Here is the input.
Amino acid sequence: MSQSPTIVKRVKPEIVSIEAIPDLKLIYPKAFPDERGFFSETYNMEDWANDLGFKEVIKQ
Here is the structure.
């Protein structure tokens, strides 16, 4: 049986640059784990703009 990955609690989104590929960024969303699993807010335009400086508009 495979184990699920450990989810780290994040109350703010985080952005990580990948130096090997210019302009590539990994964005880790807010995550709230507990004994049942986790909840993740994958996108919040206002938070991403304020916390990450991300000004692009993502449309579904």
Notes: The CA atoms of residues 7 and 35 lie 11 Å apart. Strands lie at 14-17, 25-28, 30-34, 37-41.
